[in-house]
Amino acid sequence: MDQFNQAGKQESITPNQDTLGKHRSMLAIIVSKFFQNKLAVFGLAMLFIIIGSAVFAPLIAPHDPNHQTLIARLHEPSAEYWLGADQLGRDLFSRLLYAGQMSLLVGFAAMASSTFIGATIGAIAGYFGGLIDNILMRIVDIIISFPNIFLLITLVALFRPSPFWLIVMFAILTWTGTARLVRGEILSLKRREYVLAARILGLPKWRIIFNHILPNAIGPLIVSATLAIGGYIIAESTLSFLGLGISPPTATWGNMLSAAQNLTIFQTAWWYPLFPGLMIFITVLSFNFVGDGLRDALDPRVVEK
C-alpha cells in the first residue's frame, strides 16, 4: 500500500517538475535570443547607465543643480563645468542628471498607469464580449478620435502642469492602444482548454481573467509597455519645450531644451541645447532597441526554433 502511495506521489510530482523544467527552458531560450540581438544589448546597457546615473544623481553630481553662479553664465565645458553652464550659471551636467530623474519618473509612471488601465479594460472587454465589449470599445474609439496633443494642451491649460497631473493626463489619454492589444489577445486565449477547465471548476471570472488569461498575454504587453516609455519621454519633452510641461526650477530634459531656444545661445553656447537633446535621443533610442529585442525574443515562432 505504501508503495502505491509513493508511486502516486511520484506521478503527481513529475508533471509539475516537467512543467517547471519547460518554463525554465523557455525562459533560457528567451534570454538567449534577447542577448543575441546586439542592438538590444546595447540599448539595455545604455539604459542601465542612464537610469543608474539618474538614481544616484546626488552622489554623482558635482554641483547643486539649482545653484546659480552668474559669473559662469554660458560657461563652456571645462574641468569645473564638465558639460558647460546654462544662462544662469548652473552646472549643465548636474542638471542633466536630476532632469533624468524627472523625465524617467514621468515615463515609467505614465507607462505603468496607462498599462494597468488599458490591460484591465481590454481584459474585461475581451472576456465578457457582447454589450460590455461594444460599450468599452466605443469609448476607446471616441478617445482615439481626438488628437492627443490638443487634448493634452487643453488639460494642461486647466490644471497646473505638475509631474502628478502630467502622469494622470498621459494615463487617461493613452491607455486605448493597450486595451485594444489586450482585448485581441484575450479573444484568442479565452477559448483555450485551460480556460474552459477553469470555468467548469467554477472559478470566479475575475480570477480566470487575471490569474489564468492575462498572464499568458504578458509577452506583447511587455513589449508595448517598453516601447511606450520612450513615447512618454518625448511627449513630456515636447510639452516642456512648448512651455506647457513641468515648470522650472524643476529640471527636465524638455524644459532645459526650452530654455535654450534662443538664437544667441545656439550661436555662442552650442553645448547648452546639444546635451539635453542628446539625452532624449539616446534614452528613447535605447528603449526602442530593448523593445525590439523583447519583441523578437518573445515571438513564439522564434522561440520554437
Describe this structure in words.
76% of the residues lie in helices and 0% in strands. By secondary structure, it is an all-alpha fold. It has one domain: MetI-like (MetI-like fold), CATH 1.10.3720. Helix 1 runs antiparallel to helix 14 and helix 9 runs antiparallel to helix 10. The N terminus is likely disordered.
How many individual helices? 15
Mind telling me the CATH class?
A: Mainly Alpha
N- to C-terminal distance: 45 Å
What is the CATH-assigned architecture?
Orthogonal Bundle
* Rg, Å, rounded: 25 Å
Q: Main beta sheet, described?
A: none
- Tell me, rounded to a whole number, the average pLDDT: 80
What is the domain total for the residues? 1
In total, the number of strands is 0
Order of helices and strands: HHHHHHHHHHHHHHH
Task: Name the CATH homologous superfamily.
Answer: MetI-like
**Model regions low in confidence, pLDDT < 50 over at least 5 residues:** 1-17
Shape, please?
Answer: elongated
Structure classification: mainly alpha
CATH topology group: MetI-like fold
Into which percent range does the helicity of residues fall?
over 70%
β content, as a range? Answer: under 5%
Features:
305 residues, mainly alpha, MetI-like fold, 15 helices, 0% strand, disordered N terminus
Summed up, what is this model?
The chain is mostly helical and 305 residues long. It contains 15 helices and no strands. Residues 1-17 have low confidence and may be disordered.
